[in-house]
Design a protein that fits this description.
The structure holds two protein chains of two kinds.
Chain A lengths: L2 E4 L1 H23 L15 H24 L19 E4 H20 L2 H17 L2 H22 L9 H4 L3
Antiparallel strand pairs in A: 1-2
Helix pairs in contact in A: 1-2, 3-4, 4-5
Chain B lengths: L1 H14 L2 H19 L5 H8 L8 H18 L1 H7 L8 H49 L4 H18 L4 H15 L2 E2 L5 E2 L13 H19 L14 H4 L7 H23 L4 H16 L11 H25 L5 H12 L6 H6 L3 H27 L7 H20 L2 H19 L5 H23 L4 H5 L2 H22 L3
Antiparallel strand pairs in B: 1-2
The chains are: A mainly alpha, B mainly alpha.
């Protein structure tokens, strides 16, 4: 797995910029909202604009505080008491990527193939890869899919896109 | 108080309905199991259990969720005592004396002190809850829209200030939650922030937000645990199953009564303040107990008081946190936001009118909390050996199962696959926010509070003909808003001093 170290300061700066950009984008979208029609009525845009102003303001404060403090000396003591640590944040991008792709595959599989094969494939591959015990992974995945079917479809009446189980297993 | 007396029999009837009793038992079992899992606290347990409330009525839903929450807070102490790994952050203080006691071969005694103290805290705080909440709701009835708007702002200011170390990040997170709450149809006959996508016309469902913000960050972390080396080895003392060590009896209970009473009082009081939550409650209870003790040097070596104080505070927080949530509609933590979300999903609006017009529901919650604590006690005494093996489940195996639960849970709300995609996207955002110490709890609280704040603001502005200055300078409104500013200033001073 590829482990990346990102300093808390860099993360905070990036976070502040992302939130500020989000607030600007939201403000621009709010320009299309309907104007107020009744006297005293603040209109659909008033509250969202007040919120984006707050996000922008605090984003600016966060950015200014991190930039003003400068880069902490390498190996030195934590000079920022408000959440920044010299050690930084460990980021495992490949593991995050695998998670996102596997969940996307699960969702797409549910939509286009059906719940049973999608959920089985998701559990079987991830459990087998993690434990190296493929037979155990297959059996566990089959049992888990069966239990989820009973809990969500049979008991909770969730209309999961099923491929074949309802033909053979109903309560 | 007349309301309380008039509603007590119907409330007992609700709680002792066989289905509701079963639901409480299921909530207790599910809560303990989830609390045991490292990283899964009350809010994560509630987020995962939310989909199961879709088939329940309002009373059963809230009793199920309250039982799950209470039991999850207790469950966190089991791995804290057995393998030095707190299942919830609040159980971290239990490690200090619980684990050394287990190391001495008295794990069973430590677990018994934990369950007894937790149940004592849960029941005693429930009794305080009904008196305090009724009083607070009576005050709340005097408030108009502008005061309720200001109260909402104060709630967010407190939460933004004290959840996490940096108030700036807390305020950004709370405002981000408010912004997300404005997505979809509004009261102005227009759809906001749907970006041309029809699935956003109804906004982001609360269940999606709850799962994504509260459960997903931990599940993404679990999904990152690929190899066995990434996990701490789970070593469990066989003494638990063998029931070895000195027994915890009535004499010990009486000896610990003052400790449990102090812990319960601290837990209830801290729980009632939006923001701090059970973690702060247990830290304060432990520290105070050490200060009161005649043998403070022995704390940390495995003494009874070191377990009883934080455990009673931990469970007392639950009822304490329900006071402002039910009386004023201000959720003080992520878990309480989920509970409020359950009520809203059943068309019940928390707030002062819930006490005057909500019938026996509030009393049923209070009685349900007591009953659930009694079940918890039975569960702890007779069923502990069956829960212990859960401690051994490795995170790398757990991750895929819980992720699958999240995806299906989001889908279950409306049989809509786009909700599962929303959970993935918002969950990924929450994961990165969590990584960079932007707490996601203010996001969910902002999301829940958003409609309440906006509706009250709109109503107040219509009343004052759009005079925003006149609105904020009403005496009570101004006082509450000044309190919000003072809270923020205190938080900044605290963070700048590095406290």
């Amino acid at each position: 797995m590829k482990i990346t170290q990102i300093s808390q300061r860099s993360g905070d700066i990036a976070g502040a910029l992302i939130f500020m950009a989000t607030s600007v984008g939201a403000y621009l979208v709010s320009l299309d909202f309907l104007p107020p029609v009744l006297p005293g009525d603040p209109g659909a845009a008033f509250f969202p604009r007040a919120i984006v102003a707050v996000i922008f303001l605090f984003g600016l404060i966060l950015l200014a505080r991190r930039l003003r403090r400068g880069r902490p000396p390498a190996g030195g003591p934590n000079e920022d008491p408000v959440g920044s640590t010299g050690a930084g944040v460990t980021v495992d991008l490949s593991s995050f990527g695998v998670t996102v792709i596997s969940v996307l595959a699960l969702i797409a599989g549910m939509a286009f193939v059906g719940f049973e094969p999608a959920a089985f494939g998701f559990l079987f591959i991830l459990l087998g890869w993690r434990t190296g015990r493929w037979v155990w992974a297959a059996i566990t995945s089959i049992i888990a899919v069966g239990l989820m079917y009973l809990a969500f479809v049979a008991l909770l009446k969730v209309h999961l896109p099923m491929l074949f189980l309802p033909k053979y297993l109903t309560l | 108080m007349e309301n309380v007396l008039a509603n007590i029999l119907p409330a007992i009837g609700i709680v002792f309905d066989p289905i509701n009793l079963l639901v409480i038992v299921l909530g207790v079992v599910a809560g303990v199991c989830m609390g045991i899992l490292p990283g899964f606290g009350g809010s994560q347990a509630l987020a995962l259990m939310f989909p199961f409330t879709f088939i329940m009525d309002a009373e059963a839903s809230i009793l199920f969720m309250v039982s799950t929450y209470s039991a999850a807070e207790y469950g966190g102490s089991i791995p804290a005592i057995l393998i030095r790994t707190p299942g919830t952050t609040a159980a971290a203080m239990t490690v200090l004396d619980g684990f050394p006691m287990a190391q001495k071969g008295e794990a069973h005694r430590a677990l018994m002190i934990s369950i007894t103290s937790g149940v004592f805290g849960g029941i005693s705080s429930s009794l305080v809850f009904i008196v305090a909440a009724t009083g607070l709701a009576w005050i709340g009835l005097l408030f108009g829209p502008s005061e309720m708007f200001a109260l909402g702002v104060l709630g967010l200011a407190i939460i933004g200030s004290f959840v996490g170390k940096d108030p700036t990040k807390g305020f950004i997170a709370a405002a981000f939650g408010l912004l997300l709450s404005t997505f979809g149809e509004s009261a102005f006959g227009t759809v906001r922030f749907n970006f041309g996508q029809s699935y956003l016309d109804d906004g982001i469902p609360l269940i999606v937000m709850i799962i994504a913000m509260l459960a997903a960050p931990e599940v993404f972390r679990l999904m990152g645990l690929v190899t066995a080396e990434a996990e701490a080895a789970a070593r469990i003392s066989d003494d638990v199953l063998a029931n070895k060590g000195s027994k915890f009896g009535w004499k010990d209970f009486r000896k610990l009564l003052p400790t449990m009473a102090r812990g319960s009082l601290i837990g209830t009081a801290i729980g009632a303040i939006p923001g701090p939550g059970p973690t702060v409650g247990t830290v304060v209870a432990y520290t105070e107990e050490k200060r009161w003790s005649k043998r403070p040097d022995e704390f940390g070596t495995g003494i009874d008081e070191g377990i009883a104080a934080p455990e009673s505070a931990n469970n007392a927080v639950v009822a304490g946190a329900l006071v402002p949530a039910l009386a004023l509609g201000i959720p003080g933590s992520g878990a309480i936001a989920v509970l409020i979300g359950v009520l809203i999903s059943k068309d019940i609006v928390p707030g002062p009118t819930l006490f005057s017009e909500g019938g026996p529901l509030v009393l049923a919650i209070f009685i349900g909390l007591i009953v659930c604590n009694l079940f918890l006690l039975l569960c702890g005494i007779f069923g502990i050996r069956y829960f212990v093996p859960i401690v051994k489940v490795p995170g790398r195996i757990l991750g895929p199962f819980v992720m699958l639960m999240l995806v299906i849970g989001a889908y279950a709300y409306d049989n809509n696959i786009t909700h599962s995609v929303m959970v993935l996207v918002l969950g990924a955002i929450a994961f990165w926010m969590d990584k960079f110490k932007f707490s996601t709890i203010p996001v969910i609280l902002g999301f829940v509070m958003g409609p309440i704040i906006e509706n009250n603001l709109n109503r107040a502005m219509v009343i004052t003909q759009g005079d925003i200055v006149g609105l904020v300078t009403r005496p009570i409104t101004l006082t509450i808003l000044i309190l919000a500013v003072v809270t923020a200033v205190i938080a900044y001073r605290r963070s700048n001093s590095g406290a």
